Amino acid sequence: MRGIFTISQLTIHEALRKRVLLAALVLGLAFLILFGVAFYFMNREVIESPRGPETQAQRALVYIFLTMAGLYAVNFLMVMMAALLPVDTLSGEIRSGAIQSLVTKPLRRSEIVLGKWLGFWVILAGYLLLMGGGVLLISRVVSNITPPNIAIGLGLMMLEATLLLTLSIAGGTRLSTLANGVLVFGLFGLAFIGGWIEQIGSLFQNETARYVGVIASLIVPSESLWQLAAYNMQPSLMRDMTLTPFSPASVPSGAMVVWAIGYTLVVLVFGVWSFRTRDL
Amino acid sequence: MSNAIETRSLRKEFGEKVAVANLTLTVQRGEVFGFLGPNGAGKTTSIKMLLGLVAPTNGDGTVLDAPLGNVAARAKIGFLPEHFRFQDWLSGREFLDLHGRLYGIASSKRKTSVEKLLARVDLYDAANRKLKDYSKGMLQRIGLAAALLNEPQLVFLDEPTSGLDPLGRLIVRDVINELRAQGTAVFLNSHLLSEVEITCDRVAFVKDGRVVRETSLHETSNVIDVELIVRNASPELLRDLSQFGKHVKQLNGTIHLETETDARIPELNRWLVARGMDVYKIGAAKPSLEKMFLDVMGEDARAG
Ligand SMILES: Nc1ncnc2c1ncn2[C@@H]1O[C@H](COP(=O)(O)OP(=O)(O)OP(=O)(O)O)[C@@H](O)[C@H]1O
Ligand SMILES: [Mg+2]
C-alpha cells in the first residue's frame, strides 16, 4: 500500500512538474470564462428580452439546455484528459528504461500500475470537480437554476473518465505511446459513433442500427455513460426533445453502469497482469 | 554463510534469439565478481534475470537466498542499469530522495544518506539541477549513488564507467573497494579490463550466453609471459625459441612465450645476442586480463 501511494504522489508530482496540469487548467479556466460570459449575455440579451421565451418553465428549459451544453464540453475535456494524460506513462518509461529503476525497488509491479492509475484518477476527479463545478456554479449564479441529480450525473462522467483512463494505462503496458493513443481514441470514437447510430436507429425505429449501436456501447461503454449522465441531469420536459447530444432518444439502461464498472475492473486487472508478466 | 547469487542453467530466449544459453554461476557474499564477454554475449540479460526484470525461459536461481525476482530481497539490492535513464524531471537531490522512499528508508535517515552520497559521487554542486540537464557521466554518477542508497548487500553495476571521466572512474573504483570492505558483494559488467583487473576478486568470461571460463584474480600464476621484440625475426628463430618456453607466437611484431621462471630471461637475452640479433625489448609481462580475454574468446569473436 505504501508503494501505491508513493507512486501516486510521484505521478501527480510529475504531472505538475511537466506543466501538463497547468496547461489543462489554463484551458479549463479559459473555457469557464468563455462559458460564463456567453451565459451571461445570452441571459441578458435573449432569454430575458421581450423576444425571449414567455413562461418560466420555458426559460428554465433554455437555462438547462445551456448548462448541459457546458457539461457536454466538460465531458469532452475529461475524455481528452483521461485518454491523453496516462498514454505515455508506462510505455514511455518502458521505452526509455526509466521503469527499470522502479521495478527493481522493493515494490510489486502491481503497485506501480495501481499507483499510477490512482494518481491520474485523483487528477481527473479534481479536474471534473473544478470544471463541472464551475459550469454548475456559473449557471446557478446567472440563472438561479441547478439541474437535477448532479451527483449521479458527475459520478457517471467520472466513471466514463475512469474507464478511458484504465484503457490508456492497460494499453501502455504493451503498446508504444503512439499505438496506445490510437487505440484509446479509436475505441472512444467507436463508442461515440456507435452512440449516435443507436440514437438515430431508435428515432427511426431501425432495429439494425440500434443493434449496431448497442454492440458498440458494449465494446466501449464510454458514450453510453455520458448519455445516462445527461439523461439524469435534465428535467423530464427536456428529455422529450430527442437528438440533442444531451437528450438521448434511447436511454441506456442502468445495467450499462454495471457493465462499465465490471469492464473497468477487468481492464485494470488485465493491465496489472500484462505489466507483471512482461520483460522490461 | 550462504552465497549472494546462485544460478542453475538459466536460459533466456527472445523469440528465435538465444540471449543466454546456460548460465550456472555462484557469487559469494562480499565478493567482487567481474562478468566479462563481448558485446551481445548476454551479460545485461543475465543481470536482468537475476533482478527479476526479465523472466528466464528456463532454469532458476537465488539471490540473497530468495528466489529470482523476490520483492523483499530487493530492499537489500542495489542496481545501476546499463542505460541509466531516470525520472529526468526531478533534480538530483529529489531523485535520490524518491529512490530512498521507494526503498522504504525513513525520512531522517534518507536525508543524511542522500547528502552523503551526493558528496560521494561529487555531484553536490549539481544537486538542485534537473536530471534532464545532466550530462551522460553525471547521470551515471547519480545512478551509482541511487544504487548505494539502501546500504545494499549486493550491488549490480552494468558498465558503471561507460560514461565517466578518469576522475569518475576513480570514484567507482574506490566505491567498489569500500563495498568490498563492508562485505557487500558486487556483480560488475565491464569492458574495461584494466579496471576489472584492479577491482575484481574473480571473473567469469561469457561467450554466446555461456560461461566459458571462471578464474580467481588472486591466484598467483606460475606461468610467466615473456615479451620480446627483435629485428628480422625468422621462422627458424621462432622454432628455436621453443627451447626457452612454451606457446611461442608472434603478435603484432611482438614475440610471446611462456616460461616457468624469470631466471630464463637473461639466458634468453644472451642467447639472442650471441646469435647476432638486435634486441629492442625483452621482459616479463604479467598475463593480462586482456590477453586472457582474447585467448578465451578467440580472435574470431563476433558481437552476438
Ligand atoms: N528485448 C530483447 N529482444 C530481443 N533480443 C534481445 C533483447 N535483449 C537482448 N537481446 C539480444 O540478446 C543478446 C544479448 O544481449 P545483452 O544485452 O544481454 O548483451 P550484453 O552482453 O549486455 O552486450 P553489451 O556488451 O553490448 O552490453 C543480444 O544478441 C541482443 O540482441
Ligand atoms: Mg550489456
Structure description:
- The complex is a heterodimer of chains A (280) and B (304).
- Chain A has helices at residues 2-17, 20-47, 56-84, 89-96, 99-103, 109-143, 150-172, 177-203, 207-219, 222-232, 236-239, 255-276.
- By secondary structure, chain A is mainly α.
- Chain A has one domain (2-277).
- In chain A, helix 2 (20-47) runs parallel beside helix 6, helix 3 runs parallel beside helix 7 (150-172) and helix 6 (109-143) packs antiparallel against helix 12 (255-276).
- The longest helix of chain A has 35 residues, at 109-143.
- Chain A is globular.
- Chain B has a 6-stranded mixed beta sheet with strand order 7-8-9-4-10-11, with helices on both faces. In chain B, strands 1, 2, 3, 5 and 6 form a 5-stranded antiparallel beta sheet that branches.
- Chain B is an alpha/beta fold.
- Chain B folds into 2 domains: 5-216, P-loop containing nucleotide triphosphate hydrolases (Rossmann fold), CATH 3.40.50.300; 224-286, Alpha-Beta Plaits (2-Layer Sandwich), CATH 3.30.70.
- Chain B has helices at 43-51, 92-102, 107-120, 136-148, 166-182, 193-199, 235-241, 264-274, 289-297; strands at 5-14, 17-23, 26-27, 32-36, 58-63, 66-67, 77-80, 154-158, 185-189, 202-207, 210-216, 224-230, 246-251, 254-259, 279-285.
- At the A-B interface, helix 1 and helix 5 of A face helix 2 of B.
- The structure holds adenosine-5'-triphosphate (ATP) and magnesium ion.
- Adenosine-5'-triphosphate is lined by residues 14, 17, 19, 37, 39-45, 82, 304 of chain B.
